Amino acid sequence: MRFSKPILLGLASVLLILTAKQLHAQKQREYAILNSGDTVFCKMTRSIFGNISYTVNGGESIRLRPDAVKEYFFRKDKTPFVSKKLPNGDLEFLALLERGKINLYELSYQTAGSAGGPGGGGYMGGSSCFYYVQKKDSDSLYLIKSTSLINKN
C-alpha cells in the first residue's frame, strides 16, 4: 500500500501541530498576579500543611495570601485560583473552573479526621466543596451548591 507525498506531508503536519500543543500545555508556567497588577513568573511549592509559597529566581520564599495576590496558577493544581471575598466576608482563593459572562468558582476544604471511626478502626476525614457563580460585571458571589452539612458561607 503506497501513500502519496501530499497525504504523508499532511499527516506529518497534523502530528507536529498536535505534539506542539501538548508540549505547550505541559510547559505552562507558574505565575502569581499581585494586587499591584504585576505578574510574577515563579516556582511554586506546597508545604505539608497545604500552604503554597512562591520563589522568584531562587530568592526568598513568599507565602501566597489572598490579600496580596489577585490570581495564581500552580501547575500541580492545573487550574488558576483567584482571590475573592465570600458572602460571609472572608477572603479566600477559589479555583476558577469557568471564565466567561458568568464565572464558576470552587472552594474546597479538607478536614482532618480521627482514628477510630465506626467499629473502632479506620480514619474518618472529610471534605466540603462550595460552588459559586459571579456575573462578569459584578463583585458579588452567589453560592449555588455545597456538599457541606453545615453551611458557614
Automatic annotation (TrEMBL):
<protein>
    <submittedName>
        <fullName>Uncharacterized protein</fullName>
    </submittedName>
</protein>
<feature type="signal peptide">
    <location>
        <begin position="1"/>
        <end position="25"/>
    </location>
</feature>
<keyword id="KW-0732">Signal</keyword>
